[in-house]
Amino acid sequence: MRCHSVLTPTNSRPNxxxxxxxxxxxxxxxxxxxxxNPPFLLAAGEQRSICVNFDRMxxxxxxxxxxxxxxxxxxxxxxxxxxxxxxxVGGDDVSxxxxxxxxxxxxxxxxxxxxxxxxYPMVPGHEIVGIVQEVGSNVSHFKVxxxxxxxxxxxxxxxxxxxxxREEYNCIKVPVLTFNxxxxxxxxxxxxxxxxxxxxxxxCFKILEGYPMASAAPLLCAGITxxxxxxxxGMNKPGKSLGVIGLGGLGHMEVKFGKAFGLKVTxxxxxxxxxxxxxxxxxxxNFVLSSDQEQMKAISKSFDFIVDTSSGDxxxxxxxxxxxxxx
Length: 327
What we know:
Blueprint: E1 16-21, H1 23-26, E2 50-53, E3 60-63, E4 69-71, E5 77-82, E6 93-102, H2 105-111, E7 128-135, E8 147-150, E9 153-155, H3 161-164, E10 176-177, E11 196-200, E12 204-206, H4 213-216, H5 222-232, E13 241-245, H6 249-260, E14 264-269, H7 275-281, E15 286-289, H8 293-298, E16 305-308, H9 316-320
Parallel strand pairs: 13-14, 13-16, 14-15
Antiparallel strand pairs: 1-5, 2-3, 2-6, 3-4, 6-7, 6-11, 7-8, 8-12, 9-10
Helix pairs in contact: 5-6
């Protein structure tokens, strides 16, 4: 088992760990896992670079933009799960002490069994950052003390054409998700809402010394989700124009990457309340309210690239008309 020692508060019952959550954020929904106690986990109202910090065995919120650590408030429900046991570190494995774990909506989806395939008890979390405590005898890229991140996957076949090209997420035999999946040894994988994790070195990513670990965690899901297509489709060319639809967890990452690449970035949103954040905080060059037809007409055929980070229903033709007719 790629195992985890689940965080155990001092006031928890024997062999159980209670993960606190903000009840007002996850209220509603009828799917309930088979547990005698309220079944939900910690989540965050802000999508922007928020992660769980397990410092001193207390769950806290950490915002990368401010370096502040504000205690979770209004938590009155708990999700009880059996405490996992530790396991040995294999020759190719890296053992991490987890310091931070980003919060993704996928954690909410599987905790609520929205896809009707959740496996309980569950330990979510796939934006994991920690410090290497031990390495296997065959590990060559990491050493004790390194700052390391672990993302959405923890295993794959390692032999197919995709794995050989370091595209393990396309593994023919299906890659193993960091949590709620069946690992190679038949156990259920458990994620980053825990105090440590053991992972094959292939699925560990080194974090530069001095880079804030709280800031690194969201890059392992929200960050790579937008960074990968940007690199694949050449969206890193200074001077090009980029339209970003939506300004949530993915959208704000897209804006920051776009500006770092030297692009002219326009945020397109349904909410005027996002304008100050887009321009004042994230540095976007322009903001367009999608419900304003005059504003939309003004940016017709003006973008080299458009990235849609919104999850809501929308008429695609309205946005396709914003792309330049010629590249």
